[in-house]
Amino acid sequence: MESFPIVDMEMLNTEQRAVIMEKLKDACENWGFLELVNHGISHELMDTVEKLTKEHYNKSMEQRFKEMVTNKGLEVVQTEIDDLDWESAFFLKHLPVSNISDIPDLDHDYRKVMKEFAQKLEKLAEDLLDLLCENLGLEQGYQKKAFYGTFGPTFGTKVANYPPCPKPELIKGLRAHTDAGGIILLFQDDKVSGLQLLKDGKWIDVPPMSHSIVVNIGDQLEVITNGKYKSVEHRVIAQPDGNRMSIASFYNPGSDAVIFPAPELAEKEEKENKLKYPKFVFEDYMKLYAALKFQAKEPRFEAMNKAMKTTVNLGPIATA
């Protein structure tokens, strides 16, 4: 069985660069997921983020989650639940405007460290996009420009906890889905597992590793790469023991960014009038995704294609 792709970013500065770039290429083309080590974010910062995230859950969220479970009778369910997730989460916005000062119950130190962590992740996401451009034969900065829109990319973080579940065979931690956005960077618990991806019809565990960052491809990168890189279904399996921490940061296009396959990657299909993917405004896609998150992505692309045929032709991507 193939081993889960792990990419050591420090090796990019050595004579092994070509090998690492090939490994990155294979992960994007055949897995839609990879795990980064030596990615430049200090272990000390990550340890602080983990410590304060777990403290915040215990102090401000655990009791609310327990009350929700009791109110919905989830401890005693007898049949599979398919309309909710065993998850306690909140969301932080970083770009274009931060909301971190507006989130209640966050201690000063936690706000401060999450701002710093977000800045490091933003740079890592942009560095990764340039590495993907290099592998794809696109000019440096192409993907960032494609994401830009009027006010720059959108970037936010979902901070989630998956507490011990009494009925893990009946309730998913998080139901299977692909991610709507661009590139996703995940700092996950290194002791409690649960994240799985679908590969070749089988669910495969994403291994918990200390101080790693898990990366996965979102729907928008699938479109921009004209399907060369694909977003992959993934899910979280609830566990009977342990509280799994998950900090997923989404580097996405700006709300008015126009998304379409990079011309260099779609040239042949364009000539044959067989473009695989539509051209659309990211915000329109997100409105559709909100209602269809836990369904297959292909009908979403088809719906956007039909919608765009009824509107005026959209111009080129913004490069401001």
TrEMBL record:
<feature type="domain" description="Fe2OG dioxygenase">
    <location>
        <begin position="150"/>
        <end position="253"/>
    </location>
</feature>
<keyword id="KW-0847">Vitamin C</keyword>
<dbReference type="GO" id="GO:0009815">
    <property type="term" value="F:1-aminocyclopropane-1-carboxylate oxidase activity"/>
</dbReference>
<protein>
    <recommendedName>
        <fullName>aminocyclopropanecarboxylate oxidase</fullName>
        <ecNumber>1.14.17.4</ecNumber>
    </recommendedName>
</protein>
<keyword id="KW-0266">Ethylene biosynthesis</keyword>
<dbReference type="InterPro" id="IPR005123">
    <property type="entry name" value="Oxoglu/Fe-dep_dioxygenase_dom"/>
</dbReference>
<dbReference type="InterPro" id="IPR027443">
    <property type="entry name" value="IPNS-like_sf"/>
</dbReference>
<dbReference type="InterPro" id="IPR050295">
    <property type="entry name" value="Plant_2OG-oxidoreductases"/>
</dbReference>
<keyword id="KW-0479">Metal-binding</keyword>
<dbReference type="GO" id="GO:0009693">
    <property type="term" value="P:ethylene biosynthetic process"/>
</dbReference>
<dbReference type="Pfam" id="PF03171">
    <property type="entry name" value="2OG-FeII_Oxy"/>
</dbReference>
<dbReference type="InterPro" id="IPR026992">
    <property type="entry name" value="DIOX_N"/>
</dbReference>
<dbReference type="GO" id="GO:0071398">
    <property type="term" value="P:cellular response to fatty acid"/>
</dbReference>
<keyword id="KW-0408">Iron</keyword>
<dbReference type="GO" id="GO:0016706">
    <property type="term" value="F:2-oxoglutarate-dependent dioxygenase activity"/>
</dbReference>
<keyword id="KW-0560">Oxidoreductase</keyword>
<dbReference type="Pfam" id="PF14226">
    <property type="entry name" value="DIOX_N"/>
</dbReference>
<dbReference type="GO" id="GO:0009805">
    <property type="term" value="P:coumarin biosynthetic process"/>
</dbReference>
<comment type="pathway">
    <text>Alkene biosynthesis; ethylene biosynthesis via S-adenosyl-L-methionine; ethylene from S-adenosyl-L-methionine: step 2/2.</text>
</comment>
<dbReference type="InterPro" id="IPR044861">
    <property type="entry name" value="IPNS-like_FE2OG_OXY"/>
</dbReference>
<dbReference type="GO" id="GO:0002238">
    <property type="term" value="P:response to molecule of fungal origin"/>
</dbReference>
<dbReference type="GO" id="GO:0031418">
    <property type="term" value="F:L-ascorbic acid binding"/>
</dbReference>
<dbReference type="GO" id="GO:0046872">
    <property type="term" value="F:metal ion binding"/>
</dbReference>
<comment type="similarity">
    <text>Belongs to the iron/ascorbate-dependent oxidoreductase family.</text>
</comment>
